[in-house]
Amino acid sequence: MADKQVPSTIKDEALVMKRRNQMVKGAVTLFIEKGFHKTTTREIAKASGFSIGTLYEYIRKKEDVLFLVCDSIYQRVKARMEDDIDPAQVSSLIQAVHSYFYLMDEMQDEVVVMYQEVKSLPKDAQDYVLQKEREMVAMLEEVIRKHISGPCSEEKVQLIANNIFVQGQMWGFRRWILQRTFTIEAYADLQVRLLLEGLPLKEKRPSGNKE
Amino acid sequence: MADKQVPSTIKDEALVMKRRNQMVKGAVTLFIEKGFHKTTTREIAKASGFSIGTLYEYIRKKEDVLFLVCDSIYQRVKARMEDDIDPAQVSSLIQAVHSYFYLMDEMQDEVVVMYQEVKSLPKDAQDYVLQKEREMVAMLEEVIRKHISGPCSEEKVQLIANNIFVQGQMWGFRRWILQRTFTIEAYADLQVRLLLEGLPLKEKRPSGNKE
Amino acid sequence: MADKQVPSTIKDEALVMKRRNQMVKGAVTLFIEKGFHKTTTREIAKASGFSIGTLYEYIRKKEDVLFLVCDSIYQRVKARMEDDIDPAQVSSLIQAVHSYFYLMDEMQDEVVVMYQEVKSLPKDAQDYVLQKEREMVAMLEEVIRKHISGPCSEEKVQLIANNIFVQGQMWGFRRWILQRTFTIEAYADLQVRLLLEGLPLKEKRPSGNKE
Amino acid sequence: MADKQVPSTIKDEALVMKRRNQMVKGAVTLFIEKGFHKTTTREIAKASGFSIGTLYEYIRKKEDVLFLVCDSIYQRVKARMEDDIDPAQVSSLIQAVHSYFYLMDEMQDEVVVMYQEVKSLPKDAQDYVLQKEREMVAMLEEVIRKHISGPCSEEKVQLIANNIFVQGQMWGFRRWILQRTFTIEAYADLQVRLLLEGLPLKEKRPSGNKE
DNA sequence: AATGAATGAGGTTTCATTCAT
DNA sequence: GATGAATGAAACCTCATTCAT
Questions:
Q1: B6: helix, coil or strand?
Q2: Is A149 at the interface with chain B, CB within 8 A?
Q3: Is there a contact between C187 and D135 (Cβ–Cβ < 8 Å)?
Q4: Interface touch C176/D119, C-beta < 8 Å
Q5: Are B195 and A199 a contacting pair at CB < 8 A?
Q6: Domain span at residue C54?
Q7: Is A160 on the interface with B (CB under 8 A)?
Q8: Residue D207 falls within a domain, yes or no?
Q9: Which pTM value belongs to this model?
Q10: What is the DSSP-derived secondary structure letter of residue D118?
Q11: Pick from C117, C14, C127, C9: which is nearest to C63 by CA?
Q12: C190: domain CATH number?
């Protein structure tokens, strides 16, 4: 919970949540536009609809805003993933991956921010946030495990999960190249097909399967 | 060529190259450690082995250092790729991808920097740098095209190339999760296998192959 | 109005005026002593009685201080002229010119500053300031026109006004030569007499008066 | 003599003169354009046609360039005055004043520089330069004295000389207002006429002429 | 005598943070 | 609880001057 990580001088917890929501909403836009470092606290305060003084009643340092923003994004993404690719609900891996890609499309901007600014967080906040990311990858792993046929090493599952996860983000952070060629539908379709089919090569594949 | 993009007051071109090499060498380390924004120009000068005044004889603005660093990394990566996965030389896609992954492993730090700081470049420098990236992806495309059997849509080739490209970088920027489980050899092996094999699913695959 | 030309981040307008007054007061002294270029912003802040950070809450660039100073001087001079040589009040040209010269004597330092530093203003501020100067010359023209007998070309009026105007300033910027010989009273007296009498020459004057 | 005031490390005096001429020629243009303070030594060197290192073989400090420039201008103006309004040659005050005004017209730019940058000179150089100015005023005084009829107080002569002197410069530094209305011919004509005729007033002049 | 690379003091400006109201 | 004026450390960058070649 963000409240535990970022103390505020304000007692009224409901108010703290409200103000922090305003803050995150304002800041995300700015971070998308110009990045964390080029955004000033004054701009954040203004975009949030209150004064610089008030801003500092709800955070201690500028970095706290970044943390709050990242945390909010992760929470939203994770919540959506829990809804959209719930292993208990989802009927196929294909459907799950499609849902995930569409989600990444919807939240492109947020994903890019989260992606590029995490390294600006203080070490401990980074750990907190990366933990969230592990959990998301774990969700993908679970879906994969559930829908795969035959035995499959844990490592393989993990790697596939990572691949899918990154391919989702990649739709956002490589839009300058991908979104010229593909629509999100085409992208999702093709990635899924590649995932399932494998590649036919001219040469013989190495046969020694030690798996 | 960097010389064209970043003017220097120094006339001796050889010296400019030499000093800029020192500069890039010093700056990369700092950027890896603390990122571009948290690195000061004085630190760059010191790490480069000359005074702040001298630094500014070879660049105009701090951003120029970032550009030089990015440019240098891209150039080195690209040069290495041209050696290692030359479509004329390389005997198989598998070998090419392996080489590319090993290269990404060697240049992890640089790749991470280049990856995370590009957005801090001025717009035109970004374009310049993204062009370089397109060229690298194109190299991968060519190798794929050469070694694939049967007909394969351009889009598919492009997407596979992007996947491989990003999976290489991912080895660096997701090391906190990947390098706990895999060695680079295992990683390369497994990624290649996934690439070739496809995934066996319990359910029927959608049959409508319009390809 | 200076408020329009030089934006401030401070909202309280009264405070802006107050602080800018402090600023102008402090800066004038420094500019008189050492000139605009040799005065540092830190010195200005200190002389104004606040910190460098505060200084920059009330201006954007150092040049703004110069503009504020020039504007203030012009405003004060103009206001005094409007009081002292009001064409409706003043009973004779002689009296008006005397008043003007005494004013220039009182405000010597300011006039010298304004005079020597205008060229350091950005182009648009220069125009603004020269406009003020035109207005002052126009005041003199009006007084002249009102008190002159017989027909007199506009050009002649304009030139006389300019002469008087500059002779007033000259009392300040040529003090090193003039104030060794004259008191302001003697100076004013003699200039007025010269203005009225003309010069008796040995030779015949050129007779072709096309006026 | 400038050689005495500004030492050089170079022995060959002819060379010193040559180089300093180049320097002054280059610097004047720059000072006219942007003023002394905004002109860098590098720009001066380049405009002079040699390197920054060479520049410093012929001066000690940047201010020396300003001094050399001012000195050169004063010398040229003075030399021209000695030619053009030589009291032994000139046949009338009118002609002398005309010549002086035309000279000021020719040397407008130089006069403006000299006028606005003198205060940036070190104190002792200022004295040196003001002395030159006194000498020029003295030349005007002499011409006046020679051509005036009847007795005339020294002070009056001095003041008239100063007026003429400043009116000449004024043609340059108030060009933004004067040169919209007058050609130099018209300006010279009218100033001379004003000088000779005096002003007809409606009111009685004060009669107590203690002169 | 000429060069131009190197230097670093010092200038302007920004901006996160505080605290009195 | 909210405000916003005040602060000053510290950032970027310039440029007069030196000195080895």
A1: coil
A2: yes
A3: no
A4: no
A5: yes
A6: 2-196
A7: yes
A8: no
A9: 0.91
A10: G
A11: C117
A12: 1.10.357.10
